[in-house]
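Our example pasted here:


***
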Amino acid sequence: MRSAAFRGVAPVPEEPAARYLPVMRTPRIYVDTSVIGGCFDPEFALWSNGLFKDFRLGIYAPVLSAIVTAEIQPAPEPIRGKYAELVELGAEILQPDAAAEQLARVYMDRKIVPPKYSDDALHIALATTADVDLLVSWNFKHIVHYDKIRLFNAVNMELGYKALQIYSPREVTHYEEEAV
């Protein structure tokens, strides 16, 4: 049997294994407006609030955008308060730029998202161009939909971006069965 050093692997000292676990980067999650409002909707509250708990624990890093900021402004105070909580947690706030706007236009030109819902296309484009790890949404018509996700990612890959992972908070949070 060959030694570990021969295989190009340094011998492991006999110390606690946790010391040698790889350090992984905290996944960045783009949160659209529906997730924030979902904290107060009986149908979605368990999972939206669970995701917020994951953010508070540092399991994930929240990413917002100027689009989310604008959509939140007319919302009731409790929803604006949840948005403020993400900002206080250090959420990254993306600004639309030429690359994201161009990508959103391609989604609309390809009829993946109707022009009437251009902000939905811009959410996807911002998350894609910012290279977030995933986007969460409760928008099952224009965002969290199998056919739409395939089409968004076909465009993304055609234009040199990586595929964007898109899920509902229910599929992402670690607190699905706990009361939050």
In short: Residues 146-158 form the longest helix (13 residues). Residues 40 and 79 are 8 Å apart (CA to CA). The radius of gyration is 19 Å. Strands lie at 28-31, 61-65, 92-94, 134-136, 165-167.
